[in-house]
Structures
1.
Amino acid sequence: TREIVRVPAEPAEFDWRLSLATIAAAGPFSTFAGVHRTLVLISGAGVELNFAQHGTSRLSTPGQSVSFDGAWQTSCTLLDGPSTDLNLMVAADRVRSMSRCAPLTEAQTIQTVDWTEVFVCCLSGALQLTNRRGEVETLQALNTARCAPTDGEIICIAAGTQTPNVFVAAVKRRGV
């Protein structure tokens, strides 16, 4: 697992954590009581997650995602070899979050004002972000932009001929 961002830094217990991991073998997931998890398939044939009494979820197309309680007993089966995933984890009692994942077929406006941080992850292809001050950043596959409320509205467009997949996650401490 490669940690992209963790707030606060270790050794403190995290409020939110974004990481990239390769799942190379079937087996159980670590449990994280009190943590809300979102898993997004980045590459590979995919995985099937078994949440015991909570059912199953099959991620077989890059960009598919599933959200679940980190306390759930979860086991993973590979569909056809290793897969890579993006994992957002938030402390459910301290943090409110929202996320979405979709192909970027037209310009999207991303609001940062009401959130502590907003993460824009380019899952495939390339995309361009422009904040309210006109600052431009281009993200390639697996790049992540960490946006602050002062960035205001961010316009997100494809950069190149391939339709990029984009994951957007916003986090905010409860009571703030």
Note: Residues 3 and 19 are 4 Å apart (CA to CA).
2.
Amino acid sequence: MRDSTTGGIPHQQPNDLLKRLFTPKPATPSVPVPPPAWVQESTGFGDNGHRGAFGEEFIRMLATAANLDVTRKERDRVGVDWQLGYAGRRGTRRYPAIEAQVKCTSSPVIDDDHIRYSLKLKNYNQLAGPDYEMPRFLFLVLAATDPHAWVHATEERLRVSHAAFWLCLHDKKPVELDGNISASTTRTVYIPRTNLLTADSLHHLFAEDYRDLVGV
């Protein structure tokens, strides 16, 4: 089924859970639209790699809108996916930079004031503690289960669904791994829903308060 109001583009319905979270009033259910033939013929559409790529591009879009330099770490060996900074010499007070580990989920556990997310201890330890050259953050992107709901483009706007949140763990201690605790074990982190990531809030993450938490 095609909709003339969207220029012939099929409606893209968001995930029910996230729709209830971000839609003030329940929307009238609509008839599901079957995916186009090119989607049915593709393989791996919406798998973990696809969702992860969307999450990273979500962050790149926000950082670009915030007029920040964005550098992608091609080999994630130290728990960093992106480095964000202001133009200039790296590592100076005048031109600060931050690093981010990006995760994307379509099944968040959402409470009144925070979001619960299970993070592998390997990733947790790559974010926790103060022994870093620059501040590190966890960026959690919430995306619908259906990839067709991730973006909705018209002639007037591009809507990207749904949201991203940030968390700083420099005030937490890394977990010591032993025979009973492995790097694949998970630890639940609690991300305040007030930590909504926007083009404006990205700039707040460069504050001296976060830089004072780290140092080598």
Note: The beta strands are 69-72, 82-85, 97-105, 109-110, 114-120, 136-142, 151-153, 158-160, 163-167, 186-192.
3.
Amino acid sequence: KVEASRTFADSADDTARVAAEIIERINNLDIQEDGQSYDCILKSCLQDRLLPGNGVARCLYEVETEEVEEYDEVSMSMIPVTRVVHEDAPIEYYHWQDVLWGWARQWSELPWLAFRSYLSKDEVKERFPGFEDKVQYKTQKVSDGDDGDSLPEQDSPWQKAEIWEIWDKTLKQVVWYSAGCERLLDKKDDPLQLKGFYPCPPFLMANQTTTLYVPTADYHLAQDLYDEIDILQTRISIITTAVKVVGLYNAAEGGNTAVPRMFKETVDNELIPVDNWAMFAEGGGLQGQIDWFPIQDVVNALDKLISLREQYIGLLQQITGMADVMQGQLSSPYEGVGQSQIKAQFGSVRIQALQDEFARFVGDLFQIRSEIICKHFEPQTIMQRANMQFSNDRK
């Protein structure tokens, strides 16, 4: 839910009060009508923040116009007029691999920002007339992370042009570029005229430092512990398969066949006859016929590995801030209520910081959207979208 408020709550400032109500109505009605899209966009940004470490979304301004003739009282004749048919300010999600930016230490210093899109030939013809046969079309590939390993079975079957939309803050220009094309596809001077120039808020970035404006994934901070836990779990799985009753018996000529029959044929309280009892007894009886696998040594090793795994998980919880009590479990049955509360409070500090960061990102995103609405929407469109004709402040 979007809440728009005035900077100064002056009782006599009806203009600001009504303007804030209009912006709040437009945003909330749009969310109500298309909530699934907003939910999908924001969840994708949050997932990118938690996994690779960088969530990106931007605001657009889309307008459809038509040429009509209207009567001009000054010239006493019909003149052509451009009329707005439809306009909207949608929010669009961008995959973290489809965004590039210039060298900077913080967001305010970014010299340029680029967004990558993939357009079909018909879309290129509609957006960039005359360039549909001058750009290169290729299959959109799915890259599996920073290592560049591709997944051919998941690649797109359609040929599309790779278009980069570059926002140059230094020159206050936006250019559209496609690799392999001899000329720029298009160039515009500050099309949105936003206060911060860029059509997106600061990225939902993980573990940003003051050295360079790049994300550091949460996984990277505890990668060694994750690898150690993975190795221990692999060994535990392998050794677990060895924890079974296995033994050897004398299979030489004349060996007694009653030994293997004990595990295959018998049920409770049943005796198996033994041929040549004297020879069987002379060979040491049952103990002399079977040599069991030393399972106790394997069990001891398994217990040690499980103990080490729990220690590494405890270290991982301390580093990530996700205490065991927040996961619905306790590390010790003798742990007191006070200790549990301290661990939950310590973990909630980091969780609350991430929640505040996400709320800031969404708030900044809708601030940019509201700025686009105020600067570019027609007054009649704003009145209709906010449904102000039935408001007490309609005049």
Note: The CA atoms of residues 122 and 132 lie 8 Å apart.
